[in-house]
Amino acid sequence: MNARDQVADIVIVGAGASGSVMAAELAGAGRRIVILESGPPWSPKDLYNSQLWSRRLRWGGPAVRGGGQHPFSHNFNIGWGFGGTALHHYACWPRMAIEDFREHSLYGRGADWPLDYDALRPFYDRIQHEVGISGDADKEIWRPPGAPYPMGPLATFRHGELIAEGFAKLGLATSPQPMAINSEPYGGRPACQYDGWCDSGCAILALAHPLALYLPKAIARGVELRSHVSATRVLTDATTRKANGVEYADAQGIKRILRAKLVILAANAIQNARLLLNSGNSAKSDGLANGSGLVGRRFMYHSNVSLVGEFNEETQNYAGPVAGTLHSREGYGKVSRQGNIYGSSMWHIGLAIKPNDVLGMANWHNRLIGADLKDFLEHRAPRMANLVSLCQMSARDENRIELTSERDRNGVPLARVTTSLDENDFALRQSTENLGLRIMNAAGAKDAWVAGYGSSHALGGTPMGLDPKTSVTDEYGFTHDVENLVLAGAGLYPTAGAVNPTFTIHAIAQRSAEHIGRHWASLS
Predict the structure, then answer these.
(1) Is CATH 1.10.8.50 the right assignment for the domain spanning 3-523?
(2) Displacement of CA 380 from its chain's centroid (Å)
(3) Whether the Cβ atoms of residue 345 and residue 498 lie closer than 8 Å to each other
(4) How do the domains of the chain map onto residue ranges?
(5) pLDDT digits (tens, 9 = 90+) for 372-416
(6) 3-class state of residue 494 by DSSP
């Protein structure tokens, strides 16, 4: 590499949702931007409708150790390569609720965000126009104020309709789910064909993942993407108050240094924290940007309950997107349940079903063999419908990301993620499960059961906030301790809410990028 290859205005670590948005927004104006991505250089031509293929899009980097009573499902949730986790995400894009940003002020729980819904609203509106979201804002009665969706909702199928009837019989509302999937041709991309291949990258690009939109835009504006390069440390000056580059290992394991005026860490929540913890020096032995002691702390996920019902008719359960085309936020209010249970939950209704993987049939009745299995596949499987909840998890210091004594091939300590549901989190999940079974019974299911529990979305670990003593970054992702080091992505969440995070990740990233662009002269 020549000298110019190792100098940039901005280096971004991670080519996923937040990294691609920030690169596209900051590109141009003579700025040299380089994205470092540890995984492969996926492009749209690499995408195939296959469950085996979809596994290649999931984490393929250094092992992440798990711990705690309720471990995080790391390899299922985290992405690998250009597009990151958003390349295999399900494209459910609801907005966070107004109260999600003010939990401490309103309820005395958790922490307030350093920004409110009104600060993100214009970015939600702008992004949904750029990306194209399908839905029905009028029927989505729990949706906070904002522009209507640019497209009408996706089609529904019998498996979703049946469960929605159960909600209605219990007096609970449902609505079309807001999806970053085209219900009609939009932005030069085709409409969804309802074949349920969302998590293998959506080969036709009806689903708005980074390869479909923001990465091509960034490349067209001159951003350089490097694949198979793993960031190992953020470099600083002697005061540790200013970052001046990133050390990384190339595909051959050779350590190199990329100097930059601004460093943006846009990897997943776990790898951002791991990189900061490994970037300490003699002056900062507990890691970089860790004056609060919270780097790696307050990690969260959404606790899932997956329920299945068997009906007396075929349900078309092979059709639709993986996240379902209907949803409900009834009961989302933080204190709306009996028994002093705190927290929010949301329902995905009528998810397209595949044979195996985490949400597939293989985990529904995995003890069936022989004639019983044959009967299930031939006669019962076509009559199934499913329902999956997202439950809020509390932000606690005990749920954490930390370094282990093991090291990867580049000498970086592996991460360990320790997570447990507390008594309230567990009670919230149990309450949601009980309601789900009532809904299935009201819908007319002749049999209904819990297919399993899981965890979705890596959240927190580097929380944003106003006070440097109780947070890692400010509202724009700038670390309190290092003036030109920015964090992006879901690791910034101080509290989890109970909606899928990708839309909010985009909004926060676009807001931060706009702020950086507006103040570039002073930052550089």
Answers:
(1) no
(2) 33
(3) yes
(4) 3-523
(5) 888 888 888 899 999 999 999 999 999 999 999 999 999 999 999
(6) coil
